[in-house]
From TrEMBL:
The chain crosses the membrane at residues 12-29, 56-74, 81-102, 130-149. It is a multi-pass membrane protein. The keyword Repeat does not apply. It comes from the Bacteria. This is DoxX family protein. It is found in: Cell membrane. The keyword Membrane applies. The lineage of its organism: Bacteria, Pseudomonadati, Pseudomonadota, Alphaproteobacteria, Sphingomonadales.
Amino acid sequence: MIRNSWWLTPGAAPWAIFVRLSLAGVFIFEGYQKLAYPDILGAGRFTGIGIPSPEFFGPVVGVLELLAGLLFLVGFASRVAAVPIIVIMLVAIISTKIPILLGREWWIFSLRDLDRYGFLSFTHETRTDWAMLCGALYMLLAGSGRWSLDNRLWQRTRSQSITR
């Protein structure tokens, strides 16, 4: 049964709400903007980066970020929501930050114009991606925590199974 699945367990982290709120605060609005402003932040930006099939992946990433952000906000299926966010963040680092580290175009990905390149520029430009990647990894491993919809559903499921 899906309700008894590890994917929906809330975990025991009482302060996971702060990680959830930080992820929700980023991905709800970033996902929305990819859909609302596709030329600037969605397919148009993906074209400039070198992402294949940007007209497909722009809206898909926007929807995934928006939905995952909403799931993080209420604490429902946060482990499940973390999976696409981890993939999105890894692709973001590989496609936009590795060229900065190398100081040149890399594989199919373009290099954006910056004042400097190399390791320190890479670490500076990657700080938000890294924080969101670590937050999503935390959600995957720790779950939604005590103050979440997952916890309410989990408590209800456990109390129903005890009374039977």
